[in-house]
Amino acid sequence: xxxxxxxxxxxxxxxxxxxxxxxxxLKMVKSGKPRLVVRRTNKYVIVQIIESRRGGDYxxxxxxxxxxxxxxxxxxxxxxxxxxxxxxxxxxxALQKGYSDAIVDLGLHxxxxxxxxxxxxxxALDAGLSIPVGEEVLPSEERVRGQHIADFLKVVRGSGSTIxxxxxxxxxxxxxxxxxxxxxxxxxxxxxx
Length: 193
Fold this sequence. Notes:
single chain, alpha+beta, Nucleotidyltransferase, domain 5, four-stranded mixed sheet, 4 strands
């Protein structure tokens, strides 16, 4: 066997390094629909609308949870409520750019029902994008609004624990669901704070 034949059989570099699943990617590209790409980092959640085109992918828009600060968001940038708001903002922007539907691309992130990734998908759905996804994987409204975070603070305070809950103001955390609705309304109106 010649060295050339051995090299031709070698999988692509990104497949070897575990960065791309080419079988999944091929199915998405063949669909012809734009992808709602959701990625998480250690600090943020990133939501993008990407079209597969001849010659390479075209990124139509990118929204990170960091952009929520312009709308007055005071909470963390990697929480479920923040991911939902980033998805909601991406959905609104996608509709403005003429996109009406998309398919979900979570990449190599594991698919856990109710996770931050699906919170971003739920946000895009609520913004008006048509996305084929099962209702059972989306987080509940209570978690999306951050009620579980406010409830946890009450439990920690009630137990007399000395745990430092968060660097944020406890008053803010208790009112997180109301703050979430305020920021969502600002995003829907398109008016930064």
